[in-house]
Design a protein that fits this description.
The protein is mainly α and 187 residues long. The protein has ten helices and no strands. The longest helix has 21 residues. The termini are far apart.
Length: 187
C-alpha cells in the first residue's frame, strides 16, 4: 500500500478489504469485483486503483489469513504427531468458517500456493513438513501423501453442517484423523 494515501482513499481501501473479506468468506471467490465495489459503496475504479486485479484483492484477504494461521504458535507440549493433527484440524476449521479460504485451499479458482510463496508464506510446505515429521515419528500412516491431506480437508470442509455446527465438524475431523493415524496409534 502506498504511504501517502489520502484519508478518504485509506477509508475506501479499508472498506473494500472489509467487504471483500466478508463476501469471500460467505459466498466464495467467484463474486465479481463490481459486486464487491457496490456493496462497499465505491466504484469499480476505486477497487482497481487499490487492487489492479481480482487476484490481488483475493491475495490481500487470504494471505493475511495465511499469515495468521502460520503465526499461531505450535504449543511446545506435544510430539510431532500432535502438532500435525492440531494444524490439520486448524486448517479444516479455518476453511469451514471461510468459504473463500476453503476454495483456495482446495485449489479451485485461485492458486493460493503460488500467491503464498510469493508473499513468503509456505502453507503447503509447512503442512508437508509436519506430515513428514509425524510419519517419521510413526504417528501418521506412511502411505499418506500430501494430495490425500488436501482431499480430506476439502471433504471435511464440504460437510453440510461444517460452518454452523462445531460438533459435526469436530466429529468429521475425528473420523479423518483416525484414518490418518498409524496402526496402533490413538488420539
Amino acid at each position: 500500500m502506498p504511504r501517502e494515501l489520502r484519508a478518504d482513499a485509506r477509508r475506501n481501501r479499508a472498506r473494500v478489504l472489509e467487504v471483500a473479506g466478508e463476501v469471500f468468506a460467505t459466498e466464495g471467490l467467484t463474486v465479481p469485483v463490481h459486486e464487491i465495489a457496490r456493496r462497499a459503496g465505491v466504484g469499480t475504479g476505486t477497487v482497481s486503483r487499490h487492487f489492479p486485479t481480482k487476484e490481488a484483492l483475493i491475495a490481500a484477504i487470504l494471505l493475511e489469513r495465511m499469515g495468521q494461521l502460520l503465526a499461531e504458535p505450535d504449543e511446545p507440549a506435544g510430539d510431532s504427531g500432535e502438532r500435525f493433527f492440531r494444524f490439520f484440524g486448524t486448517l479444516i476449521r479455518a476453511g469451514a468458517a471461510n468459504r473463500g479460504l476453503a476454495e483456495a485451499l482446495a485449489g479451485t479458482g485461485y492458486d493460493l500456493d503460488a500467491a503464498a510463496a510469493e508473499a513468503g508464506y509456505d502453507l503447503s510446505g509447512h503442512l508437508r513438513t509436519l506430515l513428514a515429521d509425524a510419519q517419521r515419528a510413526g504417528a501418521v500412516r506412511a502411505d499418506i501423501e500430501f494430495a490425500d491431506l488436501k482431499a480430506l480437508m476439502v471433504g471435511c470442509q464440504s460437510h453440510p453442517a461444517a460452518a454452523t455446527d462445531p460438533a459435526a465438524l469436530d466429529r468429521i475431523i475425528d473420523v479423518a484423523t483416525t484414518g490418518l493415524r498409524a496402526a496402533g496409534k490413538s488420539a
